[in-house]
Amino acid sequence: MEAIQKSAEGVTDEMALVLAAKKGDLEAFSQLVTRYDRNIFRIAQHITHNEEDAQDVVQEAFLKAYTNLAQFQGNSKFYTWLVRIAVNEALMKLRRRRSDKTVSIDEDVETEDGSMPREVADWSPNPEQLYGQSELGDILKKTIQGLPPGFRTVFVLRDVEGLSTEETAEMLQLSVPAVKSRLLRARLQLRERLAKYFKSKRGGDGQK
Amino acid sequence: MKCTEFLVELTDYLDGNIASTVRVELEEHLQWCHDCEVVLNTTKQTIEIYRNNQLYELPENLRSRLHAAIMTRCKNSKPVKKPSR
């Protein structure tokens, strides 16, 4: 996973690029694209589950960021602002693909909670080694796709991309407690769903 | 501490973002509650598995094409000068 520049120097450098891009310096903006395109693509893929849509999201998000740079005040980091644009674009794509028009970050608040642990068997010592790389990838994709969009978006930003709770809250325009509650439920639901692939077979129904 | 109370604190505990008094209570609970211990360990593994296996890497050839398309569209676009709202 490539790390996002977090050092003070990185941030200053980023602000210099943003300021130059604001004045129309395309080369500076091109450097910002290179810095973040992989992250935006991953986030978009996780939300849309569709490569074509994810490609569109990457293009639209950067284009929107560029044309609206005048509105970026520098109160947050450029990346935070960019992810917010990308998440909105991705949710719009998802809404168009699904007949369900209500896809939003808030949609899960009132849903029945499927997070109470039911499966409490230990997992194999090395669950990742039970499957080949591509089979494991399919399991992980299928499992995360089963989560409501609001949950998986929070999980991806916090646990896959490694952003802080505060940054995630700002990106999704949610409160910190709302992010924490979604993160907890996302983690528990993923755990529950992965258990059927990874739980230890010792003494269980996997014998013989 | 009950299991439901343990679960409420699970995310902060995993993130190491918890008051030491609560941590002590959680760890006490873990000493006798095997189910919560399993939930804790397998939740930790869940996060690690997703962190270790990046599912959607951007292939370099696609990356170059996207980059070129973005820059062409930016070149042909007109920056929005004023906030729209």
Summarize the main sheet of chain B: none
Average pLDDT score of chain A: 85
Given helix and strand content, the structural type of chain B is mainly alpha
The CATH class label of the largest domain in chain A is Mainly Alpha
Order of helices and strands of chain A: HHHHHHHH
Amount of helix of chain A: 55-70%
Rounded to the nearest angstrom, the radius of gyration of chain A is 19 Å
Helix fraction of chain B by DSSP (H/I, runs of at least 4) = over 70%
Assigned CATH superfamily of the largest domain in chain A: RNA polymerase sigma factor, region 2, helix turn helix motif
Strand segment count of chain A: 0
CATH class of chain B: Mainly Alpha
| CATH fold call of chain B | Arc Repressor Mutant, subunit A
Give the quaternary arrangement of the chains.
Answer: heterodimer
CATH architecture grouping of chain B: Orthogonal Bundle
CATH architecture assignment of the largest domain in chain A:
Orthogonal Bundle
The assigned structural class of chain A equals mainly alpha
What fold name stands as the CATH topology of the largest domain in chain A?
A: Rna Polymerase Sigma Factor, Chain: A
Q: What overall form of chain B do the CA principal axes indicate?
A: elongated
